[in-house]
Amino acid sequence: MPPKGISPLIATILLIAFVIAVGGVLSGWLISFSRESTEEARVRGETDIKCSYAGLYISDATCNSTDPGKLTLITENTGSEDLTDFSITVIYDNNTAFTLQVTPGSTTLSPGDVQAFYNNTDIGDCNDIAEVIIKSNTCPVDSRDKILDSDMSIVS
C-alpha cells in the first residue's frame, strides 16, 4: 500500500503560497500604517511650529472678594497666532487646583489683542490663592502665563 499524504513538491508549493499570502497582507498593513504615521507626524509638526509663535501675557489680575470671589485677568496675545478656547486654573495655598469656566469663552484673541477674562464661579477667599494660570487650549504649552498671588490686586 502506498504511503498516504501529500508529496513534498505540493507541500513546498503550498508553503510558498502561504508565505506569499501572509507577506501580501502584512505589506498592505505596513503601507497603510506608515502613511497614517507620516500624516500624523506632519500635522503634529505643523502644529508645533505654529504654536511656537504663540504667547500670552497677564498684564493685570484682580480678585474681588465682595463679588463672590470674582477673578478678572487682563490678558494680551503676545504671539503671532490667533488663540481660542481659554481656561483659567487657580492654584490655592494648600496645593489644590480649580479650573474655571472663562467668560467670554468663544473669544478669539488675535495677535496684539488685549482681553479681560473673568469667571462665573465663586473661587472662594482671594487670600487663599497662590497663583493663577491662563492658557489657550489651541496651543496649551506655548500660550500660557501665570501670575503669583503677590502680583494680584485683591478687592475686599
Give the helices and strands, then pairings:
Layout: H1 8-51, E1 56-64, E2 70-77, E3 86-92, E4 97-100, E5 102-103, E6 114-119, E7 129-136, E8 144-148, E9 153-155
Parallel strand pairs: 1-9
Antiparallel strand pairs: 1-2, 2-6, 3-4, 3-7, 5-6, 7-8
Description of the structure:
The chain is built from one helix and nine strands; from the N terminus they run αβββββββββ. The protein is of the alpha+beta class and 156 residues long. It has two domains: 51 residues; 100 residues, G protein-activated inward rectifier potassium channel 1 (Immunoglobulin-like), CATH 2.60.40. β3 and β4 form a beta hairpin. It is elongated and about 105 Å long. The chain starts with 7 loop residues before the first helix and ends with a strand.
Taking all Cα atoms into account, the compactness measure Rg is: 29 Å
- Poorly predicted ranges (pLDDT <50, ≥5 residues)? none
Number of domains: 2
CATH topology of the largest domain: Immunoglobulin-like
Helix content: 25-40%
Major β-sheet, in short? Answer: 5 strands, mixed
> How far from one another are the termini?
106 Å
Instruction: Provide the CATH top-level class of the largest domain.
Output: Mainly Beta
Question: So what's the overall shape?
Answer: elongated
Count of DSSP H/I helices: 1
Secondary-structure-based class equals alpha+beta
CATH architecture of the largest domain: Sandwich
CATH superfamily of the largest domain: G protein-activated inward rectifier potassium channel 1
Q: Helix and strand succession?
A: HEEEEEEEEE
Q: Count every beta strand, where a strand is a DSSP E run of 2 or more residues.
A: 9
Residues in β-strands, percent = 25-35%
Mean pLDDT over the full residue set = 86
Order of strands, main sheet, comes to 5-6-2-1-9
